């Protein structure tokens, strides 16, 4: 950021995430810290960012995972009780472009979506995806049952095994939000986009102090997740880490 001060760009844009609003995991907290860092410079540079929804069929997304698993005839796995907003790859690109060109320095853009209409349960996505593929979901109670049924798949199979489970991974929100009660979004300027007008709350020196605390931690021989969470909690009051001691690596 300091290097740009000597030769300021016309526009500077960073991608953030909905997880930065009331973060419950380290990824969301790190994005919130990124927002605070770049916004500390928004009085000196023309800076904008956007909080994204899930980009459908992007790398790492659940829908793309369904496609990859079906190609390998592997069972699908899907959490219950988790709802998410989705945007298309084209919409995500348009969001970046509009924010970068039309936004004012310090603006945080987000897609203006309706919770009842647009927030979709993952299990419904899985069922609709299989229906689109010409198959019916075959719900399984265990990972073992799903694997066994997948091993029996053939060209005439009309059902596809899917393991539905209750989500218990660390830092998993049951729903998404794009702004907090402390933020005052402008939902009138754009038809399909909202804008949070940043108040440039932290100074550059304050953000640098947080980063220095993290740098010092990373220089120690043994860095623990708990130690990272502690520093982030001290620095970001809205960070409420949800720890269950379980992660996606232990899931099918």
Protein described:
This protein has helices at 2-6, 26-40, 62-71, 89-102, 115-118, 122-132, 143-151, 204-218, 225-235, and strands spanning 12-17, 47-52, 54-55, 76-80, 83-84, 86-87, 107-111, 120-121, 136-140, 159-166, 185-186, 193-197. The chain is an alpha/beta fold and 252 residues long. The chain has a single domain (2-250), classed as 3-Layer(aba) Sandwich (Rossmann fold), CATH 3.40.50. It has a five-stranded mixed beta sheet with strand order 1-2-7-12-11, sandwiched between helices. Helix 2 links the parallel strand 1 and strand 2 (47-52). The mean pLDDT is 90.
Overall geometry comes to globular
Helix amount? 25-40%
**Tell me, what is the CATH class?**
Alpha Beta
Low-confidence stretches: none
Mean pLDDT across all residues, rounded?
A: 90
- Helical stretch count? 9
| Cα distance spanning the termini | 40 Å
Rg, nearest Å: 21 Å
> SSE string, helix = H, strand = E?
HEHEEHEEEHEHEHEHEEEHH
Q: Domain count, please report it.
A: 1
**Biggest beta-sheet profile:** 5 strands, mixed
Amount of beta strand? 15-25%
Secondary structure category: alpha/beta
Quantity of strands, as a count: 12
Neighbour order of strands in the largest sheet? 1-2-7-12-11
């Amino acid at each position: 950021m300091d290097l740009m001060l000597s030769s300021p760009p016309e526009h500077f844009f960073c991608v953030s995430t909905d997880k930065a609003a009331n973060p419950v995991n380290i990824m969301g907290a790190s994005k919130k810290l990124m927002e605070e860092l770049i916004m500390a410079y928004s009085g000196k540079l023309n800076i904008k960012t956007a909080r994204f929804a899930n980009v459908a069929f992007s790398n790492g997304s659940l829908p793309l995972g369904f496609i990859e698993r079906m190609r390998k005839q592997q069972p699908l796995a899907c959490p219950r009780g988790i709802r998410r907003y989705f945007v298309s790859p084209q919409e995500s690109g348009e969001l970046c472009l509009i924010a970068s060109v039309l936004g004012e320095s310090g603006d945080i853009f987000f897609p203006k979506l309706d919770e009842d209409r647009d927030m979709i349960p993952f299990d419904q996505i899985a069922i609709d995806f299989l229906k689109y593929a010409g198959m019916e979901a075959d719900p399984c109670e265990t990972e073992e049952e799903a694997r066994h049924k997948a091993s029996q798949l053939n060209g005439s199979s009309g059902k596809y095994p899917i393991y539905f489970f209750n989500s218990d991974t660390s830092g998993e929100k049951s729903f998404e939000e794009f702004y907090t009660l402390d933020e005052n979004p402008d939902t009138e300027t754009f038809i399909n986009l909202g804008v949070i007008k940043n108040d440039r709350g932290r100074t550059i020196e304050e953000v640098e102090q947080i980063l220095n605390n993290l740098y010092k931690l990373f220089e120690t021989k043994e860095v623990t997740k708990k130690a990272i969470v502690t520093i982030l909690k001290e620095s970001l009051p809205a960070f409420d880490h949800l720890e269950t001691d379980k992660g996606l690596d232990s899931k099918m």
